[in-house]
């Protein structure tokens, strides 16, 4: 789940004044200033850093690919202009059996503070993380099999909820800062934090399903964008490139590597195809708490800090076909692209090792 900033599973940045403002108690998920402190594991005082966007000249090949993509987009719009996403009816929150352990934030509508404790684990903690993440991945794979025209996102939520509680786990989003459902379902132009409702999926839609489970005191977080029916080629390419961005970012991770390499790798791939990288939502540390430092920026940045062996965090880039500006609906969660252009997202929870990174939420 992303945290907002330059946190869905939840992603942080100060939205321009033209954006719809989210309630102040929800800023953790839907918008935090990009300027933030980057705590060091040593415990020394963090130094204020400001993210810097670095521009560079596109090569001839990259420029040609960008122009080709723009032509494809123009062509697809002429063929069919899809109506904007509209909210459906949101049903009541689903019950969770009393014997299932709940995260500490359940029962309060207040958004939890971002933990400043890096999630670094011993062997026992790693084993628990692997179990939670393996379950999250199985649930996500199952949810993907439900994606087809006429199915509602509320039906997907019910199925995910049942699978999670049947496994003895708790659906982490349920009750997080008042979130009313057990999974996030973000359709078409929805960047993240879509609330499952009565809207039926349409032929040609894309949908990101973001699953997080709380099992034996540990959270596992993952998401994937699925195709619904016959999706046009430009949208398929957006989805494919977004997944490539995630894989390239993971390949740059290992003990001692700089966090800023993640944003660099993602930006390099996205720029090659002319896509925008959303800055407002970020990845995050995860373990015994849902959202913790460090915040993982997906765009080019000058963030300080390095990865350490045994650490777990999410990487969850969101790419757009047009503007990266966004608007949050008055439900305080659903965030869509300002221009109505489609967005895609992929997410994994990873474990830093001495020589690389292990993907704990393999699909």
From TrEMBL:
Identify the EC number(s). 3.4.11.18
Top-rank taxon, per record = Eukaryota
GO molecular function annotations of the record: initiator methionyl aminopeptidase activity; metal ion binding; metalloaminopeptidase activity
Q: Name one GO biological process term.
A: proteolysis
Q: Which residues form the Peptidase M24 domain?
A: 128-353
Q: Does the keyword Nucleotidyltransferase apply?
A: no
Q: Name one GO cellular component term.
A: chloroplast
Q: Does the keyword Protease apply?
A: yes
Q: Which annotated residues bind a divalent metal cation 2?
A: 221, 284, 316, 347
Which cofactor is essential here? Co(2+); Zn(2+); Mn(2+); Fe(2+)
Protein residues bound to a divalent metal cation 1: 210, 221, 347
Binding annotation for substrate: 193, 291
Cofactor binding, note field: Binds 2 divalent metal cations per subunit. Has a high-affinity and a low affinity metal-binding site. The true nature of the physiological cofactor is under debate. The enzyme is active with cobalt, zinc, manganese or divalent iron ions. Most likely, methionine aminopeptidases function as mononuclear Fe(2+)-metalloproteases under physiological conditions, and the catalytically relevant metal-binding site has been assigned to the histidine-containing high-affinity site.
**Catalyses which reaction(s):** Release of N-terminal amino acids, preferentially methionine, from peptides and arylamides
A Pfam family found in this protein is Peptidase_M24
> Keyword annotations for this protein?
Aminopeptidase, Hydrolase, Metal-binding, Protease, Transit peptide
Q: What does this protein do?
A: Cotranslationally removes the N-terminal methionine from nascent proteins. The N-terminal methionine is often cleaved when the second residue in the primary sequence is small and uncharged (Met-Ala-, Cys, Gly, Pro, Ser, Thr, or Val).
Q: What NCBIfam families does the entry give?
A: met_pdase_I (TIGR00500)
Spell out the family assignment given in the record's similarity comment. Belongs to the peptidase M24A family. Methionine aminopeptidase type 1 subfamily.
**Any idea what this protein is called?**
Methionine aminopeptidase
Organism of origin: Elaeis guineensis var. tenera
């Amino acid at each position: 789940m992303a945290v907002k900033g330059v946190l869905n599973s939840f992603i942080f940045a100060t939205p321009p004044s033209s954006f719809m403002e989210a309630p102040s108690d929800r800023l953790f998920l839907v918008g935090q200033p990009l300027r933030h402190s980057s705590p060091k594991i040593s415990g020394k005082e963090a130094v204020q850093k400001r993210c810097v966007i670095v521009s560079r000249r596109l090569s001839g090949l990259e420029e040609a690919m960008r122009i080709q993509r723009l032509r494809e987009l123009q062509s697809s719009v002429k063929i069919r202009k899809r109506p904007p996403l509209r909210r459906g009816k949101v049903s009541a929150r689903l019950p969770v059996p009393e014997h299932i352990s709940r995260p500490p934030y359940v029962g309060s509508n207040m958004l939890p503070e971002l933990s400043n404790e890096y999630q670094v684990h011993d062997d026992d903690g790693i084993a628990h993380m692997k179990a939670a993440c393996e379950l999250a991945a199985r649930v996500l794979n199952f949810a993907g099999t439900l994606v087809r025209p006429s199915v509602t996102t509320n039906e997907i939520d019910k199925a995910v909820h049942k699978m999670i509680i049947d496994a003895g786990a708790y659906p982490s989003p349920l009750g997080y800062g008042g979130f009313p459902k057990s999974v996030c379902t973000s359709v078409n132009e929805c960047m993240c934090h879509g609330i499952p409702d009565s809207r039926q999926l349409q032929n040609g839609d894309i949908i990101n399903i973001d699953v997080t489970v709380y099992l034996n005191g540990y959270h596992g977080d993952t998401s994937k964008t699925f195709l619904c029916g016959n999706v046009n080629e430009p949208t398929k390419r957006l989805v494919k490139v977004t997944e490539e961005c995630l894989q390239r970012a993971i390949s740059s991770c290992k003990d001692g590597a700089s966090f800023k390499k993640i944003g660099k790798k993602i930006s390099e791939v996205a720029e090659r195809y002319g896509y925008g990288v959303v800055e407002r939502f970020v990845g995050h540390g995860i373990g015994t708490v849902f959202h913790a430092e460090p915040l993982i920026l997906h765009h080019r940045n000058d963030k300080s800090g390095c990865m350490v062996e045994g650490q777990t965090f999410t990487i969850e880039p969101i790419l757009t076909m047009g503007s990266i500006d966004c608007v949050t609906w008055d439900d305080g969660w659903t965030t869509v692209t300002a221009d109505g252009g489609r967005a895609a997202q992929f997410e994994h929870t990873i474990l830093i090792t001495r020589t690389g990174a292990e993907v704990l939420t393999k699909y």
